[in-house]
Amino acid sequence: MNAAELKNEACASVDSMRSDLLAISHAIHAEPELSFQEHRAAAHLIAALRSAGLRVDAGAYGLETAFSAEFGADGPLVALLAEYDALPVIGHACGHNIIAAAGIGAGLALFGISRRLPGRIRMLGTPAEERGGGKELMARNGALEGVDAVLMIHPANVNLVTMPSLACAEVTVRYRGRASHAAAAPSDGVNALDALVVAYQAIGALRQHIGVDERIHGIVTDGGQAPNIVPETAAGRFYVRAANAGGLERLKARVEGCFRAGAEATGARLELEWGAVDYLDIRYNAPLAERFRQNAESLGREFTPLDRLPASMAGSTDLGNVSYRVPAIHPMLQAAPSDCNIHNSAFTEHAGAAIGDQAAIDGAKALAMTAIDFFLDTDLCHRTRAWFEQSAAE
């Protein structure tokens, strides 16, 4: 089997599907759905797979809007991931419609040549990346069993071999006080909003004494009902981030102290709940990521060295959790101008426009080519596994 020939066939297949893949991307983009609610997006993707002749398990691995399809022969098992959830208000400002189209396109291209590949492909639709940790929940239910490598792309404003990442935890807090007339009987009240404000200010003070790779940020989701009523309840949602899982646990304990301070200062009762899933940092797999880079460069993409990025540039993804279990890559493909970062409305526009479309097509091709390399290059397989085991041991 000639890798170059198979890559050319896979790329030609993606080109032949271009209009269909972009139609899927645009349909998902036009109807943004939040985490665990991606019913229409999942339906578009499942329909595309089934129309190509694949058997698809909907509601796979315990999540209603997840799916799974598998094909191929004996040999290494590669998982291709598709995300498709959106953000509140600003829709697909993270470009998950591009991720979905790229993942599906790569899988369908490989399906067409699967009889000549010494390995298997597992295509996974993974909901709830923005909030909820869908990949971690699916992994707990067996989605990664037997998998030798996981491949996906993510859009950005620059091409990168991986996403600089932080571990992240979500915490929801609620304070319960006692309502009273704010003018006639303020002394009868216990102000829950004051408790939240004290905690917020304590977190502000804590920020001076945390590491450069740590973050704490949040919003008030309930600040009371009327100015003349002492707030009986107040609530907020916060993210805590650190360089790795160990640092995250230490910072979480310090943040909890800030929330307890709000309760102690006001007499309000604190209810604190950490999210069911902590997002872990990505364990970068150099051999596999570098092969992806070479394949993407063959399509005309130029990659920015990671050491040229601002030290503050980092995000969080549940792909990090995957990378703790099996070798995985999360390269970034430019889908917007360099001055347009993700998670803003301008990026939303680009994710559904020509530059985003090209990222979806290039992503499908580069993913398919990298999977072909993994199947045919025994040395790449060994180096990928060795790098993963060494990273796990450090």
Describe this structure as you would to a colleague.
The protein is an alpha/beta fold and about 400 residues long. It contains twelve helices and twelve strands. It has helices at about 5-15, 20-30, 40-50, 95-110, 135-140, 190-205, 245-265, 285-295, 320-325, 345-350, 355-375, 380-394, and strands spanning about 55-60, 65-70, 75-80, 120-125, 150, 155, 165-175, 215-220, 235-240, 270-275, 330, 330-335. The strands form three sheets. A six-stranded mixed β-sheet has the order 1-2-4-3-5-11, sandwiched between helices. Strands 8-9-7-10 form a four-stranded antiparallel β-sheet, covered by helices on one side. α1 packs across α4 (about 95-110) and α4 packs across α11 (about 355-375).
Task: State the main characteristics.
394 residues; six-stranded mixed sheet; four-stranded antiparallel sheet; alpha/beta
